[in-house]
Amino acid sequence: MWQADVRVGANHNPTGMEVRLRLSAPTEQAAIALEASARLSIMTTGSFSSESLTPQKAKGTLAAVLRLAWSSGAGKKGGWSHQKSGKVQLAQAEKVVELLGADRLCSSITAKDFDYVVSTWRKMGKSNDTIRMRCQCFYRALDYAVKEGWMTSRPKWERPAPSIPREFTFSEELEKKLVDFFRSTKRDDHFADLIEVAIETGGRLMELLNSTVYEWKLDEGYWLVLAGNAKSGKARTVILSDKAIEIMRRRVEGLKPTDKPMPRVSAKVASERMLSARETLGFTGYKDFVFHALRHTRATRLAAKSQNPFVVQSQLGHEDIKTSMRYIHMAQVNMNTDAWRN
Q: What is the dihedral of CA 105, 109, 112, 113, to 10 degrees?
């Protein structure tokens, strides 16, 4: 058990008396919350009873706000149970609640709690992107607490800077070797097509696999990534290169608009095939030699050509322009390095 010592001076107590209490709680975070609640109660009413916390804790705890965020029917999108990414958001927010304590009152959450969570995960080696995602999901959950009147406003906090992009990219030479590996060695033209289209469009694996013939507007020269298929939940139009159009014309031939033209592979199978290519091509130990690096390669090449973060954002579907800016900065650094060499 953790102890919470409460002392309220006579000048802060409406009864004009000094109050000293020693309270017990099952966890450190619960003790901190109990101390804050007792101090507030004494300063406003002149008394405190642990029994008076029971109804408030049932309604205003972090555990309760997660349940509310999941099941709420309010708002344009409703609770997380009604949203495509709802399970992911809930799981990420739960990580924060595990650290802070499920019995903590929403009203006791401050910016210091976010700082504590960030510093704890940094010591554990978590990336800034992982920390940002977890904290942002938790921050969204607190919005439901504000709407319910469990807290007056959400605390302001400094979000961790985005992590640097993956450093591994496929050079044109390595790209050719990768494609040849699947076409010639593995005799897998379908997966080779998937790789080439991925690197030409920057599409995510599941966006490509779940796309239908209808989405590939080959005569107009673009791929329409539908909102329901996009990770961000927002539709985007991806301009297609001549190579991508040539490959997709071959793949959509004879199919219905609702058919899926890309090979039917799972994320696990795609990962296993990339691992096989990594080892065969002599890149054992390069953990970023993965399918997603194809998307990263497209972003890097597009940034070098356009020097425009909004072009990168529109084509890759980044939610935050800062993500696109990182590729622009990397491209500029590479250009400067080449200039120094020459």
A: 60
SS3 282: coil
pLDDT in tens, 47-104: 776 544 443 334 689 989 998 898 886 555 578 888 888 889 999 999 999 999 988 9
User: What pTM did the predictor assign?
Assistant: 0.55
The two structure tokens encoding residue 13: 């107590």
| 283-338 pLDDT per residue, tens | 988 888 999 999 999 999 999 999 899 999 999 999 888 888 888 877 765 554 44
C-alpha angle 94-98-100 in degrees, rounded to nearest 5 = 110
Query: What are the residues facing 24 on neighbouring strands?
Result: 3
Tokens of 173: 């030479």
- DSSP bridge pairs for 239: 222
Q: In what order do the strands lie in the sheet with 216-217?
A: 216-217, 222-225, 236-239
For the chain, state the CA radius of gyration. Answer: 27
Which residues neighbour 55 within 8 Å (Cβ) at sequence distance 6 or greater? none
Q: Which of 192, 194, 196, 195 is nearest to 184 (CA)?
A: 192
